[in-house]
Amino acid sequence: MVSRVVREDGSLWSRWKTLRQTIDGASGAKIAIGHFNASELVALNGIVSGARDAGVPVIVGATEKERAFAGVRQLAALVRSFRDERGLPVFLNADHTHSLGSALAAARAGFDAIGFDASALPFDENVGETRRAVIALKSINPEILVEGEIGNIGMGSRIHMVETKEAKTLSTPDEARQFVSATGVDLLAPAIGTMHGLTLDMVSGLTKKRLNIERIREIRAAAGVPLVLHGGSGTEEADFELAVAAGVSIVHVNTEVRLALREGLMEGLATSDMSPYTIMTPACEAVRRLVQTKLRSFNTCWAVAGVAR
Ligand SMILES: [Zn+2]
């Protein structure tokens, strides 16, 4: 008998202390870690509270623009304070880092992982730049995880008028194998059916992003490292579970966090209260609810005869 189980077993997660242990553990257990972006304390509080309520680890992501707003060292200190004070497994990733300089700044500030993104360059240049980044980052912190990106899944966690053509172009197992062995990255983000942002039809729920599960399985086998799924907002829920079983260990959600935050903020602004904490509370709460729901779904896996894998 095959059934779905939700992995919220604290003992499972408590064995894993570092981000590498957590990712390897998730990969073995066929579950995924949620990655949500924050550029200020309201979203960050919502993400941490959602993870605490779901009882699972979480990765906070911040792109170069998000880090420029929040402050690289300030964001690292905030995440560290949540980890220290509440004993929560909250990790921090420098999402979509295009320049080596900002990657090094994040590593020096104490980020757990760097998503180095040279995927806009031709493949060989992407390999060269990423290889250079891996060597420089590991010399600052040998434990830091570096993610490389191949393929193109479009730019911008926002609402798009039409689906971008990039979503149709998939990475190949050969590219994945070649890229990982030449660069030494710890994690790989290939193009496997998603795109960044949402279309209007996706916001209203009329259409969903669909993943190519077979290609994910082939790329995972060829790459030999855990896979990261970007542009997870608006993806068919059933596809997530299959993608995780096929080799995706981290799922990125940003656009849906931004939508929840914005809607909550508008609700808060509609009150006559002027206190910032009253205005911001519905925004924080909306992010918390979204993150909790997403994390529960990423921690759902397929179990055979009632035994969780
Ligand atoms: Zn992304």
Summarize it.
By secondary structure, this protein is of the alpha/beta class.
Describe this structure in words.
With 309 residues, the chain is an alpha/beta fold. The chain is built from 13 helices and 13 strands. It has an 8-stranded parallel β-sheet with strand order 8-6-5-4-3-2-11-10. Helix 3 links the parallel strand 2 and strand 3. The chain is globular. The relative contact order is 0.17. The chain binds zinc ion. Residues 96, 196, 230-231, 252 line the site of zinc ion. Zinc ion (ZN) is lined by residues 96, 196, 230-231, 252.
Q: What's the topology here?
A:
Layout: E1 2-6, H1 10-14, H2 19-29, E2 33-37, H3 41-54, E3 58-62, H4 64-70, H5 72-86, E4 90-97, H6 100-109, E5 113-116, H7 123-140, E6 145-149, E7 159-160, H8 173-183, E8 187-189, E9 198-199, H9 200-203, H10 213-223, E10 227-229, H11 237-246, E11 248-253, H12 255-269, H13 276-298, E12 300-304, E13 307-308
Parallel strand pairs: 2-3, 2-11, 3-4, 4-5, 5-6, 6-8, 7-9, 10-11
Antiparallel strand pairs: 1-12, 12-13
Helix pairs in contact: 3-13, 6-7, 8-10, 10-11, 12-13
Zinc ion (ZN) is lined by residues 96, 196, 230-231, 252.
